[in-house]
Amino acid sequence: MTNTIIAAGASLVIFVFVFDLLRRGVLKEKYAVLWLFVAGIGLVFAIVPGLLDWLGASLGIGAPVNLLFFVMGVVLVLVSVQLSYELSRHEARIRRLAEEVALLKQQLDDPSRER
Amino acid sequence: MSAQRELVAIPAWNEDASIAMVVDLVRKQRLGVEILVVDDGSTDRTADEALKAGARVVSLPFNVGVGGAMRTAFLYAQREGFEAVVQVDADGQHDPSDLGSLFDGLHDADIVVGSRFHPHSMYFVGGPRKWAMVLLSKALSRMNKSPISDPTSGFRAAGPRAISLFSTTYPAEYLGDTVGSLSIAIRNGLVIRETPVTMYYRAHGRPSKNALWSALYLGRATLALIATILKKPSPSKSDDA
Questions:
Q1: Whether residue A70 is found in the same domain as residue A111
Q2: How close is the nearest chain A Cα to the Cα of B7, in Å?
Q3: Minimal Cα distance from B67: which residue of A?
Q4: A105 touches chain B (CB under 8 A)
């Protein structure tokens, strides 16, 4: 029973925290939705402990908790890769903007330009 | 001699000690050439010194690396209607007396790479850095029709087709600006030749001598090459198959 309460509590805290970030406009919707989804799934498994056991057994996994760890690992890796992708794209875009800004600045400062 | 509009592009990051001298030398060696200094987020007086020396200056708001600075230069060249761009280092490593052979080489090539490895060269490298250069050279020469003995040379000329390609696709990653850009050019059907040039060792900064650094260089060089070989040819240019 304690386990259930702790797990459900943790999921709820994440849920509320992410929702608050979304409400205050700090987090973009697409990321908020992702984390709310993860927290939601966690909550379901916390409230219905039998679900994990049943899922583990039907997949033929001895200790159901391993299934949980495995799935969590995969989800976190996928999210990190997605974030790296976003970061790379932003770096490229920011650099592009820096180039345009530099060229515009040069055009403004250059006295020899009269077109 | 030739009627083509020529630009010498000098990417410079905190080079106020040498930039004015380089600009002067370039102007004396190639009369009538326009000189563009791309100030790559310098925190010293690089931009002021370059302006005072009579160069055009484009100042990037923060440091983007040589590749990013050169892409800015190609963008500038394309918009301002230049037909030939030669990259010259701001630290005095490149000898401006080679400008003539680089610019003139563009008459029968899209890119002319200044090679420091030739019978009269005084430039030597050794150890893992040498192996990396040999490996890159072999791989790129194989992709290209004619040999490229010095693929990491930054002393090179680009003609109209190369300017147009590079203004959008010049790679900004480490080593991408040299090795990667050649690979992109080959894959887009550009003609690459090389010409012997003189290069001096860096007067100051980044001597890069220790073994760990060399090993890293080799690793990153290999990765850079693999990445560019696997990269799809630029879709923006339509003249590739």
A1: yes
A2: 15
A3: A95
A4: yes
pLDDT (0 to 100) of residue B109: 94
CA torsion sign for B85, B89, B93, B95 is positive
d(CA A83, CA B200): 43
Same domain, A72 and A38: no
Interface confidence, given as ipTM, is: 0.73
Q: Are residues A71 and A41 in the same domain?
A: no
Q: Does A103 touch chain B (CB under 8 A)?
A: yes
Within a domain: residue A54? no
CB pairs under 8 A between A and B: 36
Residue of B nearest to A106 (CA): B58
Tell me: do A40 and A70 sit in the same domain.
Answer: no
| B55 pLDDT more than 60 | yes
- Bridge partners (DSSP) of residue B12 are B39
Residue type present at position B10: I
Q: State which residues form the domain around A25.
A: 1-47
State which CATH number among 3.40.50.150, 3.90.550.10, 3.10.180.10, 3.90.1150.10 fits the domain covering B6-230: 3.90.550.10
Residues of B in Cβ contact (< 8 Å) with A99: 60, 64, 68, 71-72, 75
Burial B59-93, CB ≥16 within 10 A → b, else e:
bbeeebbbbbbbbbbbbbbbeeebbbbbbbbbbbb
Residue A4 lies inside a defined structural domain of this protein: yes
- The answer, for B38 touching chain A at a CB cutoff of 8 Å, is yes
- Provide the β-strand partners of residue B192: B111
Q: What would the pLDDT profile of B96-114 be if each residue is shown by its tens digit?
A: 999 999 999 999 999 999 9
Whether A55 is covered by a domain: the verdict is: no
pLDDT digits (tens, 9 = 90+) for B15-43: 999 999 999 999 999 888 999 999 999 99
Tally of domains within chain A: 2
pLDDT tens per residue, range A20-54 = 988 888 888 888 888 888 888 888 888 887 888 88
Alpha helices in B80-210 (DSSP H): 99-105, 127-143, 160-169, 181-187
